[in-house]
Amino acid sequence: MMLTVILLTGCNARTQDVNDFSQKRAAMVSEQIMARGVKDKQVLDAMLKVERHLFVPPDQAARAYNDYPLPIGYDQTISQPYIVAFMSEALQLKPGMKVLEIGTGSGYQAAVLAEMGASVYSVEIVNELAEIASQLLNRLGYTTVKVKSGDGYLGWPEHSPYQAVIVTCSPTHIPQPLIDQMDEGGRMIIPVGQTNYQELILLEKKNGKLYEKSVLPVRFVPMVNEQNQNY
Q: Is pLDDT at 228 greater than 90 in this prediction?
């Protein structure tokens, strides 16, 4: 009898955890994302569905839905939820679009894009993070996300052109290889600047020409090469 009570208590605890995370996710979308003006239903639905607490280290899970970035190891971070939503909305994705992501991190941004119907090709400079993210995304069923370890500055030319490019680490200038891999009519969202100050830049390729505008001040980890030197 005592064993039955213990098992039921454990089950109730796990149900409570799931419900708690679900409530936190709903509050995150309502209070952090919609309240700041993100309206795209695809984005909002994806942010509601993707379980952000699975993409952070276990000791950070309780903080996963808070309004700030979190460390994920290897001197990298998972972006603030609002920034993930803002950048996702800026791409104006349609189901079936091909997206190049630079900076896989823990795989959270890629999962959000996949929930929006995109095929995602993601490049991560840290070998260990690339492997961890790839395994997690596969385990969660995100078969439309492909991850490789490599220098994000160079993109992933084998699968270009891309209808959208999203960069989650900051170079001091916009990498030409990423521009070259954009499709006609494509969009890129990328933080650009020095370590202490960056601007989120939105680019569009129209009739072979690039149009860009600054949309938001941000702070991201720097884009680095395989020798850990900043671009």
A: no
